[in-house]
């Protein structure tokens, strides 16, 4: 790690020298450049460290800006996709979007926070996006959940989501369908719905949307023009929601 950092410093200094004075750079050989660079780094290490820190800040700011622009471009897909399960107030004045996986331990850890936000904030709308990235079982569970909404409607889909998210251990089609039977739903009809191109298309669209937003893990939350990754707790999410309302 240290060697790599020194290398970055060296090449940064070379870039400074060659950019600042190209004619001078052409008049000296590589050995002279490396000697000058080494002396420069040894005498002024704090300057290079500061420059690299500033460069990292700019890169992070550029990434955040790119994500914000992507969120604006994807507003309809994020907020108004008809196949998503909605928690809380469907006409709320603020929306929190969660990309989740039924087999994600961090999603299960965040579930009580999401539930508490709904209970404490009557004007909050939460959009649930199936983002099954943790293996075949996750894809199967997502297909069952989407089929429940398509066959049984919104209220049942909300109940199913909450109960399946509370289930411990690995979730797959069999376990998810067992839960539907416990809820009195038609297992055969749901199994048939799971195999339809429409359900496949919803999952493909969610995966593509997550890619366009630069999401790589679950849970990932989108609120306003901000992306919050991980099970960060209730308060950071609540603060982000209130910040949106203040704009």
From TrEMBL:
Signal peptide: 1-25
Superkingdom per UniProt: Bacteria
Pfam families per the UniProt record, alphabetical: DSBA, ScsC_N
InterPro entries xrefs: DSBA-like_thioredoxin_dom, ScsC_N, Thiol:disulfide_interchange, Thioredoxin-like_sf, Thioredoxin_domain
UniProt domain Thioredoxin: residue ranges: 55-246
UniProt entry keywords in alphabetical sequence: Signal
Name this protein carries in UniProt: DsbA family protein
Organism: Aquamicrobium segne
